Amino acid sequence: MGPLISIITVSFNSETTIERTLKSVAAQTYKNIEHIVIDGASTDGTVALISRHLGAIAYFRSAPDAGLYDAINKGLQIAKGEVIGLMHSDDFYADDGVLAEIAEQFAQGGVDGLYGDAAFFRPQFPEKPVRLYSSAKFSPARLSWGWMPAHTTLYLRSAVYKRLGLFKPDYAIAADFDFICRVFLQPDLRICYVPKVLVKMQTGGTSTSGLKATLRLNREVLRACRENGLQTNILKILSKYPAKFLELLIR
């Protein structure tokens, strides 16, 4: 048996998507999994749907929280796995063998983390990708340009979280970028790239929900760069968008 992998899913009013997420985790061929579900006191049918799948869930809690990153932190504080990853409540694994491949990478030793690619889909057509989020060209040098690997494909040993701390909840959108800066600016951490799609992600997330969210995201990315000692400016960060547009052409 390979390492215990903790998967943290946070939800709020996710009744239209979360059952697919739960089934995707439960269908993984790798079974040494601790699935933690943190719900923010949903007012729709989310809790009822989750309750139908408690047999495959190690820990479930539904209570008010202070937002996405506060909920993720609650999950991290509970997690017992040697390896930890996130799976949002509107996403799912690219295939049933993803966690088996991740477990094998960690079991071989020599890595503190890994990440891969993600494919975006529209809510009506989950099997038809509209954008490939390739992490192939990512390097720590690209952080100052606002680039990061697909966050939901990032799996880290729990020791990395113990060393670097949790997500900063005073970020509304970009706490994941700030955390990734902290991770990849550690020169001794060994983090490898897996050249395949690991996760399928639904479009329409908080960071892409309109111009106001985009502006706030980039302000927070700028703040994260500065707090982590990266020299940058807003024009440098905005320059990534033409490349993101090209991702729409890759199916």
Tell me, what is the CATH class?
A: Alpha Beta
Number of helices: 9
Looking at CATH, which topology would you report? Spore Coat Polysaccharide Biosynthesis Protein SpsA, Chain A
Rg of Cα set: 17 Å
Summed over residues and divided by their number, the pLDDT gives a mean of 92
The second-level CATH architecture is: Alpha-Beta Complex
CATH homologous superfamily assignment: Spore Coat Polysaccharide Biosynthesis Protein SpsA, Chain A
Give a short account of the largest sheet.
Answer: 9 strands, mixed
Domain module count: 1
How would you sum up the global shape? globular
Strand content: 15-25%
The helix/strand order is: EHEHEHEEHEEEHHEHHH
Class by SSE composition: alpha/beta
Residue windows where pLDDT falls under 50 for at least 5 positions: none
Number of strands: 9
Distance between the termini: 36 Å
- What proportion of the residues is helical, as a percent range? 25-40%
Short description:
With 251 residues, this protein is an alpha/beta fold. The protein has helices at residues 18-26, 46-51, 68-78, 98-107, 158-164, 175-184, 211-227, 234-238, 241-247; strands at 5-11, 33-39, 59-62, 83-86, 92-93, 113-121, 129-133, 155-157, 191-202. Strands 1, 2, 3, 4, 5, 6, 7, 8 and 9 form a nine-stranded mixed sheet that branches.
Characteristic key phrases:
single chain, 251 residues, Spore Coat Polysaccharide Biosynthesis Protein SpsA, Chain A, 9-stranded mixed β-sheet, 9 strands
